[in-house]
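Colleagues,

For the teaching module next term, I've prepared a clean inverse folding example: a structure given as tokens, and then the sequence designed for it. I'd like students to try predicting residues themselves before seeing the answer, so please don't circulate the second half yet.
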């Protein structure tokens, strides 16, 4: 998917919501456990209930890998079920020496037709570039993460700048704002002004709204750009809003609340 197509979806749906699909057999409603593929059945109903409100879906690959071969089947069915105009993110946090990264990229971009994959920047340019060789596919590089431990390394000062700034300034040379995005946690909105000085045009994938307590308005105040520039993710706050038979309906209600706030923000661009 191109950046123009993504922005078109944002304008059409008045939304920059990314729904996380971290589907856990221990958390999904009991009545689904008797179905042939409970994970896919859950995802299918969540997608049906939110696809007019979301511009992106983000399965976290850990939840599928942990189930072994069965999990990969559920993931593949899920990715094939998501309407093609909706941006898809394999939240896999991959990256390795070049020839290995190339195979990670093939797994997510060719075997499964994801639009993007999250990549850890720690191994540097040759670990990231193989993902950038795929046309109309995206790398989403970890920038400032939402977790507490993110500060162990990401804010260490070197040459008068925090490490995450070095990562962004250097890595943006490897691709363009048409094939790279960055993860910036909603729990750290205070860094967004500085981040926008380094990467004014790139889209940011922002997890941490909802269960982690991040604030949508704060993120948008400092993080939006002329093409919106944000994909705001909420996972548990939406998909586990209820674990009863009404789970899809409740998920829709939560997604609708966020989309309603986003509509006002999109109109202000
Ligand atoms: O910095 C990061 C990077 C990735 N994540 C992932 O996003 C979702 C957040 O889920 P919630 O339930 O909305 O908290 C999850 O898959 C994380 O692994 C992140 O939270 N922070």
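(Answer key — instructors only)
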């Amino acid at each position: 998917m191109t950046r123009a197509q993504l922005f078109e979806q944002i304008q059409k749906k008045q939304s920059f919501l990314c729904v996380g699909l971290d589907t856990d057999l221990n958390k999904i409603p009991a009545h689904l456990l008797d179905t042939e593929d409970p994970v896919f059945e859950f995802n299918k109903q969540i997608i049906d209930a939110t696809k007019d409100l979301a511009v992106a879906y983000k399965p976290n690959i850990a939840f599928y890998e942990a189930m072994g071969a069965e999990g990969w089947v559920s993931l593949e069915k899920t990715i094939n079920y998501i309407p093609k105009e909706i941006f898809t993110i394999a939240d896999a946090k991959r990256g390795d020496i070049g020839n290995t990264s190339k195979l990670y990229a093939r797994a997510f971009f060719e075997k499964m037709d994801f639009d993007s994959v999250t990549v850890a920047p720690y191994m540097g340019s040759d670990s990231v570039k193989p993902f950038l060789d795929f046309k109309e596919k995206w790398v989403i590089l970890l920038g400032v993460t939402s977790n507490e431990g993110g500060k162990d390394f990401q804010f260490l000062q070197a040459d008068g700048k925090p490490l995450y700034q070095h990562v962004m300034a250097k890595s943006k040379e490897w691709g363009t704002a048409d094939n790279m995005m960055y993860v910036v946690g909603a729990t750290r909105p205070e860094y967004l002004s500085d981040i926008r000085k380094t990467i004014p045009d790139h889209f940011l994938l922002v997890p941490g709204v909802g269960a982690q307590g991040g604030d949508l308005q704060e993120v948008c105040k400092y993080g939006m750009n002329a093409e919106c520039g944000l994909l705001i993710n909420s996972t548990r706050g939406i998909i586990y809003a209820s674990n009863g038979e009404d789970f899809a309906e409740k998920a829709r209600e939560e997604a609708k609340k966020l989309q309603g706030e986003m509509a006002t923000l999109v109109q202000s661009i």
